Amino acid sequence: MTFQNKPLEKIALFSLKTIQMRSFHITWLMFFVCFFGWFGLAPLMPTIREDLGLTKSQVGNIIIVSVSGTIIARLIIGRLCDTWGPRKTAVRLLLFGSIPVFLVGLANDYVSFLMFRLAISVIGASFVITQFHTSMMFAPRIKGTANAVAGGWGNLGGGVTNMVMPLIFAAIVGFGYTNHQAWRFAMIVPGCMMLAVAYLYAKYTKDTPDGNYDEIGRNTVKTKTDWTVLADWRIWALTLAYAMCFGMEITFDNVASLHFVDTFHLSQASAGFWAGIFGLMNVFARALGGFVSDRVGEKQGMKGKGTLLAFVLLAEGGGLLLFAEAASLTLAIIAMLGFALFLKMANGATYGIVPFVNEKNVGLVSGIVGAGGNLGGMLFGFLFKSESISYEQAFSYIGYAVIATGIIVLLTRFGKQPATAGAAAQPQPVLVTEKH
Questions:
Q1: Does residue 434 fall inside a structural domain?
Q2: What is the model's pLDDT at position 421?
Q3: Is residue 397 a part of any domain in this protein?
Q4: Does the pLDDT at position 425 exceed 70?
Q5: Average pLDDT of 345-353?
Q6: Closest C-alpha to 66, from 87, 92, 44
Q7: Which of these, 333, 282, 275, 67, lies nearest to 157 by C-alpha position?
Q8: Where is it located (predicted)?
Q9: Side-chain half-sphere of 115: how many Cα atoms within 13 Å?
Q10: Which stretches of 224-284 are DSSP H helices?
Protein backbone atom coordinates (compact mmCIF):
# COMPACT_ATOMS: atom_id res chain seq x y z
CA MET A 1 0.00 0.00 0.00
CA THR A 2 1.27 3.47 -0.88
CA PHE A 3 0.81 6.15 1.74
CA GLN A 4 0.21 9.73 0.73
CA ASN A 5 0.35 10.60 4.42
CA LYS A 6 3.42 8.64 5.41
CA PRO A 7 4.02 6.90 8.74
CA LEU A 8 5.84 9.20 11.13
CA GLU A 9 9.62 9.16 11.50
CA LYS A 10 9.43 10.72 14.98
CA ILE A 11 7.32 10.23 18.10
CA ALA A 12 6.12 13.71 19.06
CA LEU A 13 4.60 12.87 22.43
CA PHE A 14 2.83 16.17 23.02
CA SER A 15 1.34 16.49 19.54
CA LEU A 16 -2.27 15.74 18.62
CA LYS A 17 -2.23 17.52 15.27
CA THR A 18 -1.52 14.50 13.09
CA ILE A 19 -3.74 11.47 12.67
CA GLN A 20 -0.74 9.32 13.53
CA MET A 21 -0.24 10.88 16.96
CA ARG A 22 -3.97 11.04 17.70
CA SER A 23 -4.23 7.34 16.91
CA PHE A 24 -1.12 6.63 18.99
CA HIS A 25 -2.50 8.32 22.10
CA ILE A 26 -6.00 6.93 21.76
CA THR A 27 -4.80 3.37 21.15
CA TRP A 28 -2.62 3.26 24.29
CA LEU A 29 -5.48 4.89 26.20
CA MET A 30 -7.76 2.14 24.91
CA PHE A 31 -5.42 -0.54 26.28
CA PHE A 32 -5.17 1.46 29.53
CA VAL A 33 -8.94 1.50 30.15
CA CYS A 34 -9.24 -2.13 29.07
CA PHE A 35 -6.75 -2.92 31.84
CA PHE A 36 -9.14 -1.15 34.21
CA GLY A 37 -11.94 -3.44 33.13
CA TRP A 38 -9.70 -6.50 32.95
CA PHE A 39 -8.09 -6.14 36.38
CA GLY A 40 -10.54 -3.82 38.14
CA LEU A 41 -11.69 -6.71 40.32
CA ALA A 42 -8.18 -7.78 41.37
CA PRO A 43 -7.58 -5.15 44.11
CA LEU A 44 -11.11 -5.76 45.43
CA MET A 45 -10.60 -9.52 45.80
CA PRO A 46 -10.12 -9.38 49.60
CA THR A 47 -13.69 -8.04 49.85
CA ILE A 48 -15.07 -10.27 47.08
CA ARG A 49 -13.45 -13.36 48.65
CA GLU A 50 -15.25 -12.66 51.90
CA ASP A 51 -18.52 -11.65 50.25
CA LEU A 52 -18.79 -14.78 48.10
CA GLY A 53 -17.13 -17.10 50.61
CA LEU A 54 -14.37 -18.15 48.20
CA THR A 55 -11.74 -20.75 49.06
CA LYS A 56 -8.08 -20.41 48.08
CA SER A 57 -8.62 -22.96 45.31
CA GLN A 58 -11.58 -21.02 43.95
CA VAL A 59 -9.60 -17.77 44.01
CA GLY A 60 -6.90 -19.61 42.07
CA ASN A 61 -9.40 -20.72 39.45
CA ILE A 62 -10.59 -17.13 39.10
CA ILE A 63 -6.99 -16.01 38.54
CA ILE A 64 -6.56 -18.69 35.87
CA VAL A 65 -9.70 -17.83 33.89
CA SER A 66 -8.99 -14.10 34.16
CA VAL A 67 -6.07 -14.54 31.74
CA SER A 68 -6.92 -17.74 29.87
CA GLY A 69 -9.64 -16.30 27.63
CA THR A 70 -7.16 -13.73 26.37
CA ILE A 71 -4.97 -16.40 24.78
CA ILE A 72 -7.47 -17.33 22.08
CA ALA A 73 -8.90 -13.81 21.88
CA ARG A 74 -5.49 -12.36 20.94
CA LEU A 75 -5.19 -14.68 17.97
CA ILE A 76 -8.72 -13.81 16.78
CA ILE A 77 -8.30 -10.07 17.30
CA GLY A 78 -5.11 -10.13 15.25
CA ARG A 79 -6.97 -11.59 12.28
CA LEU A 80 -9.81 -9.07 12.72
CA CYS A 81 -7.32 -6.18 12.64
CA ASP A 82 -6.23 -7.44 9.22
CA THR A 83 -9.78 -7.68 7.87
CA TRP A 84 -11.79 -4.98 9.68
CA GLY A 85 -8.95 -2.63 10.52
CA PRO A 86 -7.78 -1.72 14.05
CA ARG A 87 -10.38 1.07 14.43
CA LYS A 88 -13.50 -1.05 13.96
CA THR A 89 -11.93 -3.92 15.89
CA ALA A 90 -11.16 -1.66 18.86
CA VAL A 91 -14.60 -0.06 18.95
CA ARG A 92 -16.38 -3.41 18.83
CA LEU A 93 -14.12 -4.96 21.46
CA LEU A 94 -14.73 -1.99 23.78
CA LEU A 95 -18.51 -2.08 23.28
CA PHE A 96 -18.98 -5.81 23.67
CA GLY A 97 -16.24 -6.11 26.31
CA SER A 98 -17.95 -3.53 28.51
CA ILE A 99 -21.03 -5.75 28.86
CA PRO A 100 -19.53 -8.32 31.30
CA VAL A 101 -17.70 -5.48 33.08
CA PHE A 102 -21.05 -3.77 33.78
CA LEU A 103 -22.84 -7.02 34.63
CA VAL A 104 -20.26 -8.75 36.84
CA GLY A 105 -21.98 -7.08 39.81
CA LEU A 106 -24.89 -9.49 39.27
CA ALA A 107 -22.70 -12.45 40.32
CA ASN A 108 -23.83 -13.90 43.62
CA ASP A 109 -21.82 -17.12 43.82
CA TYR A 110 -18.52 -18.64 42.79
CA VAL A 111 -19.67 -20.12 39.46
CA SER A 112 -21.36 -16.98 38.14
CA PHE A 113 -18.41 -14.82 39.19
CA LEU A 114 -16.03 -17.26 37.47
CA MET A 115 -17.99 -17.06 34.22
CA PHE A 116 -18.05 -13.25 34.27
CA ARG A 117 -14.30 -13.21 34.97
CA LEU A 118 -13.72 -15.46 31.95
CA ALA A 119 -15.84 -13.21 29.72
CA ILE A 120 -14.01 -10.10 30.92
CA SER A 121 -10.63 -11.68 30.09
CA VAL A 122 -11.35 -11.29 26.37
CA ILE A 123 -10.67 -7.54 26.57
CA GLY A 124 -7.03 -8.34 27.33
CA ALA A 125 -6.72 -8.85 23.57
CA SER A 126 -6.74 -5.04 23.26
CA PHE A 127 -2.94 -5.28 23.47
CA VAL A 128 -2.89 -6.71 19.94
CA ILE A 129 -4.85 -3.75 18.60
CA THR A 130 -2.51 -1.28 20.29
CA GLN A 131 0.58 -2.92 18.80
CA PHE A 132 -1.03 -3.35 15.37
CA HIS A 133 -2.36 0.20 15.16
CA THR A 134 0.87 1.76 16.40
CA SER A 135 2.83 -0.22 13.80
CA MET A 136 0.60 1.21 11.06
CA MET A 137 1.33 4.78 12.12
CA PHE A 138 5.14 4.80 12.45
CA ALA A 139 8.08 4.14 10.17
CA PRO A 140 10.08 0.92 10.59
CA ARG A 141 13.01 2.67 12.26
CA ILE A 142 10.88 3.63 15.27
CA LYS A 143 8.18 0.94 15.31
CA GLY A 144 9.90 -0.87 18.18
CA THR A 145 10.16 2.20 20.37
CA ALA A 146 6.61 3.33 19.53
CA ASN A 147 5.21 -0.10 20.34
CA ALA A 148 7.16 -0.28 23.60
CA VAL A 149 5.91 3.13 24.73
CA ALA A 150 2.30 2.40 23.74
CA GLY A 151 2.39 -1.05 25.31
CA GLY A 152 4.00 0.23 28.50
CA TRP A 153 1.57 3.10 28.95
CA GLY A 154 -1.32 0.75 28.31
CA ASN A 155 0.05 -1.69 30.89
CA LEU A 156 0.18 1.27 33.25
CA GLY A 157 -3.54 0.73 33.64
CA GLY A 158 -2.78 -2.31 35.76
CA GLY A 159 -0.97 -0.16 38.32
CA VAL A 160 -3.47 2.69 38.35
CA THR A 161 -6.31 0.18 38.69
CA ASN A 162 -4.78 -1.31 41.84
CA MET A 163 -4.55 2.16 43.35
CA VAL A 164 -7.82 3.69 42.19
CA MET A 165 -10.38 0.88 42.46
CA PRO A 166 -10.01 0.56 46.27
CA LEU A 167 -10.53 4.33 46.51
CA ILE A 168 -13.67 4.13 44.36
CA PHE A 169 -14.86 1.26 46.55
CA ALA A 170 -14.19 3.27 49.71
CA ALA A 171 -16.01 6.31 48.29
CA ILE A 172 -19.09 4.20 47.53
CA VAL A 173 -19.03 2.78 51.07
CA GLY A 174 -18.75 6.36 52.31
CA PHE A 175 -22.09 7.12 50.64
CA GLY A 176 -23.71 4.51 52.85
CA TYR A 177 -23.55 1.38 50.71
CA THR A 178 -22.41 -1.96 52.11
CA ASN A 179 -19.24 -3.77 51.03
CA HIS A 180 -21.51 -6.27 49.26
CA GLN A 181 -22.91 -3.46 47.12
CA ALA A 182 -19.78 -1.32 46.78
CA TRP A 183 -17.53 -3.69 44.83
CA ARG A 184 -20.38 -4.29 42.38
CA PHE A 185 -21.09 -0.61 41.80
CA ALA A 186 -17.37 0.13 41.52
CA MET A 187 -17.15 -1.87 38.28
CA ILE A 188 -19.54 0.55 36.60
CA VAL A 189 -16.65 3.03 36.45
CA PRO A 190 -14.33 1.03 34.14
CA GLY A 191 -17.36 0.08 32.04
CA CYS A 192 -18.16 3.75 31.45
CA MET A 193 -14.49 4.46 30.70
CA MET A 194 -14.55 1.79 27.99
CA LEU A 195 -17.63 3.32 26.38
CA ALA A 196 -16.05 6.80 26.42
CA VAL A 197 -12.88 5.56 24.72
CA ALA A 198 -14.95 3.64 22.16
CA TYR A 199 -16.41 7.01 21.13
CA LEU A 200 -12.95 8.61 20.95
CA TYR A 201 -11.63 5.71 18.91
CA ALA A 202 -14.48 5.88 16.42
CA LYS A 203 -14.36 9.67 16.03
CA TYR A 204 -10.68 10.60 16.16
CA THR A 205 -8.63 7.69 14.76
CA LYS A 206 -8.01 6.18 11.34
CA ASP A 207 -6.78 2.71 10.44
CA THR A 208 -3.81 4.07 8.48
CA PRO A 209 -2.21 7.48 7.87
CA ASP A 210 -4.13 7.51 4.57
CA GLY A 211 -7.52 6.69 6.09
CA ASN A 212 -9.70 3.78 7.13
CA TYR A 213 -9.61 0.50 5.24
CA ASP A 214 -12.97 1.09 3.56
CA GLU A 215 -11.99 4.65 2.60
CA ILE A 216 -8.76 3.69 0.85
CA GLY A 217 -10.03 0.44 -0.66
CA ARG A 218 -7.50 -1.68 1.16
CA ASN A 219 -7.67 -5.26 -0.06
CA THR A 220 -7.37 -7.90 2.60
CA VAL A 221 -5.53 -10.51 0.57
CA LYS A 222 -5.81 -13.96 2.08
CA THR A 223 -2.42 -15.55 2.42
CA LYS A 224 -1.52 -18.99 3.60
CA THR A 225 -0.27 -19.06 7.15
CA ASP A 226 3.33 -20.26 7.27
CA TRP A 227 3.26 -22.65 10.22
CA THR A 228 6.81 -23.78 9.46
CA VAL A 229 7.91 -20.99 11.81
CA LEU A 230 6.98 -23.34 14.65
CA ALA A 231 10.09 -25.36 13.85
CA ASP A 232 12.28 -22.39 14.81
CA TRP A 233 13.47 -22.85 18.37
CA ARG A 234 14.17 -19.13 18.75
CA ILE A 235 10.44 -18.42 18.58
CA TRP A 236 9.77 -20.84 21.41
CA ALA A 237 12.59 -19.33 23.46
CA LEU A 238 10.97 -15.92 23.06
CA THR A 239 7.53 -17.35 23.86
CA LEU A 240 8.95 -18.87 27.03
CA ALA A 241 10.68 -15.59 27.90
CA TYR A 242 7.45 -13.61 27.47
CA ALA A 243 5.61 -16.14 29.61
CA MET A 244 8.12 -15.44 32.37
CA CYS A 245 7.91 -11.64 32.17
CA PHE A 246 4.46 -10.57 30.96
CA GLY A 247 2.92 -13.76 32.36
CA MET A 248 4.35 -12.87 35.76
CA GLU A 249 3.19 -9.26 35.39
CA ILE A 250 -0.49 -10.13 34.95
CA THR A 251 -0.21 -12.79 37.66
CA PHE A 252 1.17 -10.23 40.11
CA ASP A 253 -1.57 -7.78 39.15
CA ASN A 254 -4.04 -10.49 40.20
CA VAL A 255 -2.49 -11.66 43.47
CA ALA A 256 -0.55 -8.67 44.82
CA SER A 257 -3.38 -7.17 46.88
CA LEU A 258 -4.30 -10.53 48.39
CA HIS A 259 -0.65 -11.21 49.22
CA PHE A 260 -0.13 -7.86 50.95
CA VAL A 261 -3.38 -8.24 52.91
CA ASP A 262 -2.72 -11.82 54.03
CA THR A 263 1.04 -11.62 54.62
CA PHE A 264 1.55 -8.09 55.93
CA HIS A 265 -1.99 -7.45 57.21
CA LEU A 266 -2.50 -4.28 55.22
CA SER A 267 -5.88 -2.73 54.54
CA GLN A 268 -7.38 -3.25 51.09
CA ALA A 269 -6.59 0.37 50.16
CA SER A 270 -2.96 0.17 51.34
CA ALA A 271 -2.46 -3.16 49.61
CA GLY A 272 -3.87 -1.69 46.41
CA PHE A 273 -1.48 1.25 46.67
CA TRP A 274 1.64 -0.92 46.87
CA ALA A 275 0.36 -3.25 44.17
CA GLY A 276 -0.24 -0.13 42.07
CA ILE A 277 3.38 0.98 42.46
CA PHE A 278 4.35 -2.23 40.67
CA GLY A 279 2.20 -1.30 37.69
CA LEU A 280 3.21 2.36 37.65
CA MET A 281 6.73 1.39 36.64
CA ASN A 282 5.32 0.83 33.16
CA VAL A 283 5.58 4.61 32.74
CA PHE A 284 9.18 4.04 31.67
CA ALA A 285 10.42 0.47 32.27
CA ARG A 286 8.97 -1.37 29.26
CA ALA A 287 10.00 1.44 26.93
CA LEU A 288 13.45 1.39 28.53
CA GLY A 289 13.79 -2.31 27.75
CA GLY A 290 12.89 -1.79 24.11
CA PHE A 291 15.12 1.28 23.77
CA VAL A 292 18.16 -0.40 25.35
CA SER A 293 17.57 -3.46 23.16
CA ASP A 294 17.70 -1.26 20.06
CA ARG A 295 20.88 0.45 21.22
CA VAL A 296 22.58 -2.85 22.06
CA GLY A 297 21.48 -4.23 18.71
CA GLU A 298 23.22 -1.39 16.88
CA LYS A 299 26.56 -2.39 18.38
CA GLN A 300 26.29 -6.14 18.98
CA GLY A 301 23.49 -7.31 16.69
CA MET A 302 21.04 -10.03 17.67
CA LYS A 303 23.56 -11.68 19.96
CA GLY A 304 23.61 -8.55 22.09
CA LYS A 305 19.82 -8.33 22.11
CA GLY A 306 19.61 -11.94 23.30
CA THR A 307 22.22 -11.38 26.00
CA LEU A 308 20.34 -8.33 27.28
CA LEU A 309 17.06 -10.30 27.46
CA ALA A 310 18.81 -13.11 29.32
CA PHE A 311 20.31 -10.66 31.82
CA VAL A 312 17.05 -8.91 32.67
CA LEU A 313 15.30 -12.29 33.07
CA LEU A 314 18.01 -13.51 35.46
CA ALA A 315 17.69 -10.27 37.44
CA GLU A 316 13.91 -10.60 37.49
CA GLY A 317 14.18 -14.15 38.83
CA GLY A 318 16.59 -13.08 41.56
CA GLY A 319 14.28 -10.26 42.60
CA LEU A 320 11.32 -12.65 42.81
CA LEU A 321 13.28 -14.93 45.14
CA LEU A 322 14.09 -11.99 47.40
CA PHE A 323 10.45 -10.89 47.35
CA ALA A 324 9.28 -14.38 48.30
CA GLU A 325 11.64 -14.48 51.30
CA ALA A 326 10.98 -10.90 52.47
CA ALA A 327 10.18 -10.91 56.18
CA SER A 328 9.13 -7.26 56.36
CA LEU A 329 7.00 -4.97 54.23
CA THR A 330 9.95 -2.66 53.59
CA LEU A 331 12.12 -5.45 52.21
CA ALA A 332 9.20 -6.78 50.18
CA ILE A 333 8.63 -3.38 48.56
CA ILE A 334 12.33 -2.98 47.73
CA ALA A 335 12.46 -6.46 46.19
CA MET A 336 9.22 -5.81 44.30
CA LEU A 337 10.58 -2.63 42.77
CA GLY A 338 13.71 -4.50 41.71
CA PHE A 339 12.03 -7.42 40.01
CA ALA A 340 9.37 -5.12 38.55
CA LEU A 341 12.01 -3.01 36.79
CA PHE A 342 13.68 -6.02 35.19
CA LEU A 343 10.39 -7.78 34.43
CA LYS A 344 9.04 -4.81 32.49
CA MET A 345 12.37 -4.27 30.75
CA ALA A 346 12.20 -7.93 29.72
CA ASN A 347 8.78 -7.25 28.15
CA GLY A 348 10.30 -4.55 25.98
CA ALA A 349 13.51 -6.49 25.27
CA THR A 350 11.51 -9.52 24.10
CA TYR A 351 9.70 -7.45 21.50
CA GLY A 352 13.00 -5.84 20.59
CA ILE A 353 13.91 -9.25 19.13
CA VAL A 354 10.54 -10.48 17.81
CA PRO A 355 10.41 -8.39 14.58
CA PHE A 356 13.81 -9.72 13.44
CA VAL A 357 13.41 -13.45 14.03
CA ASN A 358 11.38 -14.11 10.89
CA GLU A 359 10.87 -10.94 8.87
CA LYS A 360 8.40 -12.60 6.47
CA ASN A 361 6.07 -13.66 9.30
CA VAL A 362 6.35 -10.87 11.86
CA GLY A 363 2.62 -10.86 12.62
CA LEU A 364 2.45 -14.59 13.22
CA VAL A 365 5.57 -14.60 15.40
CA SER A 366 4.24 -11.63 17.39
CA GLY A 367 0.95 -13.43 17.95
CA ILE A 368 2.61 -16.63 19.14
CA VAL A 369 4.94 -14.82 21.53
CA GLY A 370 2.14 -12.56 22.79
CA ALA A 371 -0.13 -15.51 23.49
CA GLY A 372 2.77 -17.07 25.40
CA GLY A 373 2.57 -14.24 27.90
CA ASN A 374 -1.01 -15.06 28.81
CA LEU A 375 -0.28 -18.78 28.78
CA GLY A 376 2.40 -18.15 31.40
CA GLY A 377 -0.08 -16.18 33.49
CA MET A 378 -2.59 -19.01 33.27
CA LEU A 379 -0.06 -21.67 34.30
CA PHE A 380 1.22 -19.56 37.20
CA GLY A 381 -2.36 -19.37 38.42
CA PHE A 382 -2.28 -23.07 39.24
CA LEU A 383 0.49 -22.45 41.78
CA PHE A 384 -1.60 -19.83 43.57
CA LYS A 385 -4.61 -22.13 43.44
CA SER A 386 -2.94 -25.00 45.29
CA GLU A 387 -3.99 -25.50 48.91
CA SER A 388 -0.58 -27.04 49.70
CA ILE A 389 1.53 -24.21 48.26
CA SER A 390 1.73 -20.82 49.97
CA TYR A 391 1.92 -17.60 47.98
CA GLU A 392 5.52 -17.19 49.14
CA GLN A 393 6.40 -20.65 47.81
CA ALA A 394 4.64 -19.89 44.53
CA PHE A 395 6.72 -16.74 44.05
CA SER A 396 9.88 -18.78 44.75
CA TYR A 397 9.01 -21.47 42.23
CA ILE A 398 8.31 -18.85 39.58
CA GLY A 399 11.61 -17.14 40.43
CA TYR A 400 13.52 -20.35 39.76
CA ALA A 401 11.59 -20.85 36.50
CA VAL A 402 12.48 -17.32 35.36
CA ILE A 403 16.16 -17.91 36.12
CA ALA A 404 16.11 -21.19 34.18
CA THR A 405 14.49 -19.38 31.25
CA GLY A 406 17.17 -16.70 31.41
CA ILE A 407 19.82 -19.40 31.02
CA ILE A 408 17.94 -20.90 28.06
CA VAL A 409 17.73 -17.49 26.38
CA LEU A 410 21.44 -16.92 27.01
CA LEU A 411 22.24 -20.17 25.19
CA THR A 412 19.91 -19.40 22.26
CA ARG A 413 21.57 -18.04 19.11
CA PHE A 414 19.06 -15.46 17.90
CA GLY A 415 21.38 -14.25 15.13
CA LYS A 416 21.73 -17.67 13.54
CA GLN A 417 19.85 -16.87 10.32
CA PRO A 418 21.27 -14.29 7.88
CA ALA A 419 17.89 -12.50 7.69
CA THR A 420 18.43 -11.16 11.19
CA ALA A 421 21.88 -9.76 10.55
CA GLY A 422 20.49 -6.42 9.48
CA ALA A 423 19.24 -5.80 12.98
CA ALA A 424 22.57 -4.31 13.95
CA ALA A 425 22.26 -1.66 11.28
CA GLN A 426 18.89 -0.35 12.42
CA PRO A 427 18.96 3.41 13.00
CA GLN A 428 18.64 4.71 16.52
CA PRO A 429 14.97 5.25 17.50
CA VAL A 430 13.88 8.85 17.85
CA LEU A 431 11.74 10.01 20.76
CA VAL A 432 11.03 13.71 20.92
CA THR A 433 8.96 15.60 23.45
CA GLU A 434 8.70 19.05 21.95
CA LYS A 435 5.22 20.43 21.40
CA HIS A 436 3.86 20.86 17.89
A1: no
A2: 38
A3: yes
A4: no
A5: 89
A6: 44
A7: 282
A8: Cell membrane; Membrane
A9: 8
A10: 233-264, 268-280
